[in-house]
Design goal:
- By secondary structure, the chain is α/β, with parallel strands linked by helices.
- Helix content is 34%, strand content 24%.
- It has a seven-stranded mixed sheet. Strands 17, 18, 19, 20, 21, 22 and 23 form a seven-stranded mixed sheet that branches.
- It is elongated and about 80 Å long.
- The structure holds MU-OXO-diiron.
- MU-OXO-diiron (FEO) binds next to α2.
């Protein structure tokens, strides 16, 4: 049965909710699901903007057919070919064989590589600034390479001001029937989802995201709504969400505070992390979040690495190298281009300690990472009186750097 909602003049949400998926891209946990958004525009010509995951094809087609109410589909606009959106594209092509397929020039290669027989259909390969007339509604296209794949375009309906923004302005999380940003408690329910989505999925491409935001700036008087591929549709406070994306894309911290991460086998390194957190709080540093790298999926820790200005990592040595869960996290930080943070490092090792050296080298591969304690602070096996003052000195350095 159909489940649709009008979002603007002649414009309908026909997307679906996936609350069964456990891992996005088979990596990132989705404890509260995700939506695959798609939209139909009814004019002299009809257009579908983006498709959904294959598992939801039946529900999706019910929605489209209900909105079309007997009309044929004239265009399928594919902003992005990642399979979370595009895996039902082939089914849609069969269902609506008269539809002209609209995609970017690089999109053609992606469509073919994923096995879609687009040569059997009319196709339009658009580039930046091209327009598509539906009647009252004129669609124009902006290229958005690497936000989040090379073929991505975003589509602006000049009549309604709806920007179909592909993965940009998307979030993890299901909507529970509330489609618009002003119908949810965004800061309470979705900001953490949005940050984890952006930083882990698009975070590597901050310069490309900034390029898209700069390109869209002169059009902001025309843009009334963000209609992304995941999460709420934005019809108010667009500036709020733009500001968040500018911070994330420019690797600017949202909060002056500390992300504390520890890697601990038997609790001794964990003990040091807890002592340091306690002492930081006593010095007035309360914007702080602590994670056990073995226990929390790295995507959550990455999100807070983008959020906070300071990162404290306490890690044990393991098999003469860095403890694997911490190593995975730091490799992810390198991969995602995290930069512009103040860093404090604590090494533990019972013999031949290596974690401090390796963490220092790994942070050295990231841009503009200031190591606060010159090198790293070391203790052996468990914290005892002889090293307590050194750890307190590091706490003081961190607190002072935060103005406390
Ligand atoms: Fe939601 Fe890049 O796919």
């Amino acid at each position: 049965m159909h489940n649709v909602r009008q979002i603007a003049e002649d414009t309908f949400y026909v997307g679906v909710t996936d609350n069964r998926i456990s891992l996005f891209e088979n990596i990132h946990p989705l404890p509260e699901g995700v939506t695959y958004n798609s939209y139909v525009i009814l004019d002299e010509k009809t257009a579908l903007v983006d498709t959904v995951d294959w598992n939801f094809a039946r529900e999706f087609v019910d929605n489209i057919e209900y909105v079309l109410d007997g009309r044929d589909l004239d265009y399928i606009v594919m902003n992005h070919f990642e399979p979370d959106h595009a895996s039902s594209f082939g089914f849609l092509m069969e269902k609506f064989p008269n539809a002209t397929l609209v995609m970017s020039v690089p999109g053609k290669r992606f469509a073919k590589n994923f096995g879609f027989d687009i040569d059997a259909h009319n196709c339009v390969f658009v580039k930046e600034g091209d327009t598509l007339e539906l009647g009252k509604h004129t669609l124009t296209f902006l290229s958005a390479p690497m936000v989040h794949w090379p073929e991505v375009i975003v589509t602006l309906d000049l009549h309604t001001g709806v920007l179909y923004s592909a993965d940009a302005f998307g979030t993890f999380g299901k909507l529970d029937g509330r489609l618009f940003n002003d119908e949810v408690d965004f800061e309470g329910e979705f900001l953490d989802h949005a940050r984890r989505y952006y930083t882990n999925i698009v975070g590597k491409y901050g310069d490309k995201t900034m390029a898209l935001l700069n390109k869209a700036e002169p059009l902001l008087d025309k843009i009334k709504m963000f209609a992304p591929l995941h999460g709420p549709v934005w019809r108010t406070d667009l500036d709020y969400f733009i500001d968040k994306h500018v911070k994330w894309a420019s690797y600017t911290p949202e909060e002056e505070g500390v992300l504390i991460v520890y890697g601990s086998m038997y609790g001794n390194t964990e003990n040091v992390a807890h002592i340091m957190a306690n002492e930081l709080a006593k010095r007035g540093v309360t914007k702080m979040r602590m994670y056990d790298a073995s226990k929390t999926h790295h995507s959550y820790i990455i999100a807070d690495a983008f959020k906070y200005s300071h990162i404290l990592v306490c890690s044990v040595t393991y098999n003469l190298t860095l403890y694997p869960p911490v190593k995975t996290l730091l490799e992810d930080m390198i991969m995602l281009n995290l930069q512009n943070r103040k860093v404090a490092l604590v090494e533990n090792g019972s013999w031949a300690p290596q974690s401090g050296r390796i963490m220092t080298e790994m942070f050295g591969k990231m841009k503009n990472m200031e190591i606060l304690n010159d090198k790293f602070t070391h203790f052996t096996s468990s914290l005892r009186e002889d090293k307590y003052d050194e750890i307190m000195n590091l706490v003081d350095v961190i607190a002072k750097s935060l103005g406390k």
